[in-house]
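User: Sequence recovery, please. Input:
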């Protein structure tokens, strides 16, 4: 039986509770709700496979953050980016505990700014994912805005848990250190698809968010026009954020994994 989606409006800090899990069900058979309206997908221009270089998606600058291998990041056409990670694939700034093939936007978005994001995601056929964690897309915190040597986890992310898509969100109570080492982060698993991902199939993912570490924060996610997340509450750490997409995982997986992202659109500002 398909359970209806639960709207989440937490009160106070104690918000990691089971009701925070939204529609832990398969996408199959769920009634569609109103998705984000997307505009025409902008083109990818001046693409480079070289790490640390920049290219453009619709006029917005992105940086290649990969190991720089022949397979790491490519652009099969002017609307698609293909990412692949193999064991030991690290970006220039990584430690040996992660594998990475990502691109990161240079567009830094102020805290409390409404964001609309839409893209299509496809995981290529291959061996099942066994990484302890794997991030496919994320709103990354601007750690430098919070001080030197600050390292945080993304305020929200679309992940792969084994072979299941999921959406997670994080925040840190006001006045506390949000760094990973401090142990103050509050993490919510907002949705996990009960059905395994269909490899070789594109999923249309649409996101409306307001990264605001107060009661004004919000996150809504649609997958194939089905609303799977509708969260209202603190989101992020009170700092600016920027978009990243690709493949970023723990280095405990032995398999090669590849994914395609296409037709990315992003708008910010009033709704």
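Assistant: Recovered sequence (271 residues):
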């Amino acid at each position: 039986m398909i359970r209806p989606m639960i709207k989440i409006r937490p009160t106070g800090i104690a918000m990691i509770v089971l009701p925070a899990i939204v529609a832990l069900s398969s996408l199959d058979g769920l009634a569609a709700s109103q998705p984000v309206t997307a505009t025409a997908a902008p083109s990818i221009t001046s693409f480079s496979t070289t790490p640390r270089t920049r290219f453009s998606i619709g006029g917005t600058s992105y940086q290649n953050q990969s190991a720089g291998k022949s397979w790491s990041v490519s652009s099969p056409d002017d609307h698609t980016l293909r990412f692949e990670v193999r064991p030991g694939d690290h970006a220039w700034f990584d430690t040996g505990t992660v594998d990475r093939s990502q691109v990161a936007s240079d567009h830094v978005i102020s805290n409390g700014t409404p964001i609309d994001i839409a893209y299509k995601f496809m995981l290529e056929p291959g061996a099942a994912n066994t990484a302890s964690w794997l991030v496919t897309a994320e709103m990354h915190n601007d750690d430098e805005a919070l001080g030197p040597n600050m390292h945080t986890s993304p305020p929200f992310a679309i992940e792969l848990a084994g072979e299941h898509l999921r959406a997670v969100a994080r925040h840190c109570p006001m006045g506390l250190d949000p760094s990973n080492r401090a142990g103050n982060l509050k993490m919510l698993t907002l949705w996990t698809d009960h059905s395994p991902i269909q490899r070789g199939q594109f999923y249309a993912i649409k996101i409306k968010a307001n990264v605001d570490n107060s009661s004004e924060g919000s996150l809504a996610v649609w997958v194939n026009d089905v609303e799977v997340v509708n969260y209202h509450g603190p989101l992020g750490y009170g700092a600016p954020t920027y978009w990243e997409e690709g493949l970023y995982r723990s280095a405990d997986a032995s398999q090669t994994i590849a994914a395609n992202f296409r037709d990315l659109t992003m708008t910010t500002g009033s709704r």
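The chain has one domain: 20-268.
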